Amino acid sequence: MATKSSIEWTEYTWNPVTGCTKASPGCLNCYAERMAKRLQAMGLSNYRTGFRVALHEHVLSAPMGWKKPSVVFVNSMSDLFHEKVPLEFILKVFDIIRQTPHHQFQILTKRAERLSEITSFIDWPENVWMGVSVETAQYTHRIDHLKMTGAFIKFLSIEPMLGPIPDMDLTGIDWVIVGGESGPRSRPIHPEWVTDVRDQCIEAGVPFFFKQWGGTNKKKAGKILDGKIWKQMPATVSRH
Question: Could you tell me the pTM of the whole model?
Answer without folding.
Answer: 0.95
